[in-house]
Amino acid sequence: MRRWNGWGDDQYNLELPDAGRQFLDDRVGPGTPLRDVDLDTVCQSVPPSRLVPHPLVQTRAEDRVRHARGQSLPDWLAMRSGDFGVFPDGVAYPESADDVKHLLNYARSNGIQLIPYGGGTSVAGHINPLAGNKPVLTVDMGRMNRLTDLDTESQVATFGAGTPGPLVESQLRARGYTLGHFPQSFELSTIGGWVASRSSGQQSLRYGRIEQLFAGGSIETLQGTLEIPTVPASSAGPDIREMVMGSEGRIGLITEVRARVSPLPEHESFHVMFFPDWEQARNAARKLVQNRTQLSMLRLSNAVETETQLALAGHPQLIRLLESVLALKGVRGGKCMMTFGTTGSRRQCRTALGEARALGKQFGGVYTGTRLGRKWAEKRFTMPYLREALWQMGYAVDTLETATDWDNVDNLLNRIEHNLRQGLREQSERVHVFTHLSHFYPQGCSIYTTYVFRVADSYDETYARWHHLKSTTSELIVHNRGTISHQHGVGKDHAPYLPQEKGELGMMAIRSLCGSFDPEQLLNPDTLFRN
Amino acid sequence: MRRWNGWGDDQYNLELPDAGRQFLDDRVGPGTPLRDVDLDTVCQSVPPSRLVPHPLVQTRAEDRVRHARGQSLPDWLAMRSGDFGVFPDGVAYPESADDVKHLLNYARSNGIQLIPYGGGTSVAGHINPLAGNKPVLTVDMGRMNRLTDLDTESQVATFGAGTPGPLVESQLRARGYTLGHFPQSFELSTIGGWVASRSSGQQSLRYGRIEQLFAGGSIETLQGTLEIPTVPASSAGPDIREMVMGSEGRIGLITEVRARVSPLPEHESFHVMFFPDWEQARNAARKLVQNRTQLSMLRLSNAVETETQLALAGHPQLIRLLESVLALKGVRGGKCMMTFGTTGSRRQCRTALGEARALGKQFGGVYTGTRLGRKWAEKRFTMPYLREALWQMGYAVDTLETATDWDNVDNLLNRIEHNLRQGLREQSERVHVFTHLSHFYPQGCSIYTTYVFRVADSYDETYARWHHLKSTTSELIVHNRGTISHQHGVGKDHAPYLPQEKGELGMMAIRSLCGSFDPEQLLNPDTLFRN
């Protein structure tokens, strides 16, 4: 069953090997876990619902608890401490666009705030209800989870917006197709959520971001149904798709997504190459993408991430062997691991692999084959489970991500890491910080930084540690040419930093756009911008 | 010097070979040209300007004549007949963003309508002034035409928005780079115009549409300066770039464009393959793009266009030789010509050519090498000159374009051609109609149809012929899942068809967005939507 207070299926646990435990102990010191509250206790704390009854609305405490929070670190602290603050007053599970229309009418008639809920995987507070006078209804789209049409000639598939990643792929795979959208949250996040928050997946180098995959669909708004027809491209004025993507629920509830799909590829494999240092590795990655080598994914870990991953992998003998082989070829301490995928026709994959190896070599890269790449592919969606294992050991983990142009990548990356690493110095706490680049463009790339620190003696103090790290780094990002988010969206947590990025007129445009659909600001208020 | 009443440089004339003349005579009958008015006569018809003087504003008659019309067929008829209807009251030639700010203040203070003018190449009435009480000032961006910055690491170039195609490319080429944006209007159209109208170029398969090339920039609006910083990608809410692209002057005047550029490719060549019939050819093209073969351009002419192009090419002996070779391989009447480009590293080009030839062969394609491809590349921007030659012979030429999903391409193409071909039947006039597909996506493609008909005895009657063909076909397009424009934009001519495509809520969103920047609707009024 799905964990009510953390990530994923509670039958699945990722164990940290002893070497990993030792590694963290060395880096930040031994952890002391905080005590978790149980579900029953939380359910007993849920106040009565303020909603007038509606046949589609469920007001059971457990439903409300399970829809109150996402997966940000503050969400975790709330779920583990039981200090939720606010719960939605009810949850609806619509099964059709008509159900959604009824819910919108109900919300308007009764002055209810609506929060669209996909997989509940937000790490930026998208789905958290607000304290206030208005009752809050969370609309869980999870029952609208079917592939309803597949046009194999145009390669367009139609899905209910609540379809989660695995059901997107399994329904397509049965017909020989794939969407190819694999965010880290794939197991739980939904296609409608991807659209609403401008998601990007691990193989975006081949399949594109959701911006390239979202072809059209239906959005139920307080003004009626917004239908976006599919055309492959258009110069007919501003693109309505682009107004929906990133609207994070403030325009309406996406009910149907038409997406561009691809036939299952003839070939796919994942490869690993090690580079002697960061500069060579980063230049190789930049050249690869600027050269338009047809890779399907590319991920470049910096030296600390490489070291951390190898330490946490749990095959010490194998790793030692690998390291001695690399050392013979001049790749020693400070080495950086690049993982890349080739996907497509055999001919394309051969060409891409040839180009990648030749280019890598120019930058001192040592190609190690597909063994580690296969490992990566097997474990690609399990990383969030590690958070649970670390939590039980008394460590908090969070990630921060941005994107910037190539000329600024090192500058921004170094500032982010430095700020996090030094962030808890006053409390004499160390923070273990490591980074990879995971989405590549000729213009620049994303920067994805993980930071691990010890939980404090109390939940409040732990939150304060997190808040200091997060807020100072977020400020730093938007003042140093980074976007506040490359793939996680804005939600409520990033909203304070958006004006710096978009400017006053950009914010005016966003407000005016959302306001035209929702003048009373009933839909996901305070998300994207303060009401 | 630039022609005041038609396309391009008046020193350059494209002669139609005798065979071409005969071909048209056979298809639509002999033409009788209408009489052209001269520039002096038109200048004498220009009424006094209603503008209060401003140091940046020029009110000479010739400036106003030269900025009154674009390149649509109604624009031609106006310029050739002298029946302009309306002229702008003046023209400004700003040299900086500050100049543009002054002009915006001047416009607001005096209730003046502003029309941004790039290359004046619109074929949809973007830059035509409106009759009305408010004076109209056209703002010619042509003096802001410099490459001001080139970041070779991030591959981002900064241009004045008025930089025309040749100056974009020559300034980049001197540094070893290319933008790779080659619309048919390349010679005259500007980078700012491309952004404002969501342009697409002949090699969009490699370089992308302007949507992929526009990284950020500056827009002067009546509310202040909208600065869009460059980031490679972002999930930080709705994308402000996407609000500017396709805004067609209604949000503000683009002054600076930062664009994603590429190093000049190691290799580039253009190839031609003939297919025995349309179905095989269209399927081959669809498979090529769905297979993600790394082509840089692809163009597929239907049988009538293939026949027309070969007839108009003017090398009858060579063509006869080609046709007898093709006939030996089973490709005869009804054959369709595919032109494709390979651009990139030698290895990429080799792979792409191999894939294209192998795939073409499966569909009965006969590869004929690069000779005809070279011809295409040499003449790629000269087609608009043909209009002049045909006009002098008494023929009117216009083009219509759209895009639709693959499952609808044949249906829509056939309806468009049928409607045009039958369109002047009541007047016993024939229309020569042919089509190519020129922009390809896994989801669908653009449909680009050319139609040639004889001018009537009068300008009014000629306009009526055109209007009947254009309006009935435009209706047909938007009622049959086509976009009203894939690459020409909306302007004033396509505005009546936009609501059918965008829907009531889509139009509301666009109006609200533009209205937030320009509540008094002073900027390019009636473009995109009626004021």
The SS-based structural class of chain A is alpha+beta
Multimer state: homodimer
Sheet-strand content of chain A, in percent, reads 15-25%
Give the N-to-C terminal Cα separation of chain A.
36 Å
Greatest contact between two chains: A-B, 94 and 94 residues
Number of DSSP helical runs of chain A: 19
**Overall 3D form of chain A:** globular
CATH topology value of the domain at 148-263 in chain A: Uridine Diphospho-n-acetylenolpyruvylglucosamine Reductase, domain 3
Characterize the biggest β-sheet of chain A: 8 strands, antiparallel
If you had to describe this structure to a student in words, what would you say it looks like?
The structure is a homodimer of 531-residue chains. By secondary structure, chain A is an alpha+beta fold. Among the domains of chain A are: 29-142, Uridine Diphospho-n-acetylenolpyruvylglucosamine Reductase, domain 2, CATH 3.30.43.10; 148-263, 2-Layer Sandwich (Uridine Diphospho-n-acetylenolpyruvylglucosamine Reductase, domain 3), CATH 3.30.465; 267-380, Alpha-Beta Plaits. Chain A has 19 helices and 19 strands. Chain A has helices at 18-28, 39-44, 61-66, 73-81, 97-110, 165-173, 191-197, 204-207, 210-213, 240-244, 278-290, 303-313, 316-328, 346-362, 371-378, 383-392, 406-422, 459-478, 498-517; strands at residues 57-58, 90-92, 113-117, 136-140, 147-151, 156-160, 177-178, 214-221, 224-228, 253-260, 262-263, 267-275, 297-301, 336-344, 366-367, 395-405, 432-437, 440-441, 444-454. In chain A, the strands form 4 sheets. In chain A, strands 12, 13, 14, 15, 16, 17, 18 and 19 form an 8-stranded antiparallel beta sheet that branches. A 5-stranded antiparallel beta sheet of chain A has the order 5-6-10-8-9. A 4-stranded mixed beta sheet of chain A has the order 1-2-4-3. In chain A, a hairpin with a 4-residue loop joins β5 (147-151) and β6. At the A-B interface, β9, α10, β11, α14 and β16 of A face β9, α10, β11, α14 and β16 of B. Chains A, B: Belongs to the FAD-binding oxidoreductase/transferase type 4 family. Chains A, B: This is FAD-binding oxidoreductase. Chains A, B: It comes from Marinobacter profundi. Chains A, B: One of its GO terms (molecular function) is alkylglycerone-phosphate synthase activity.
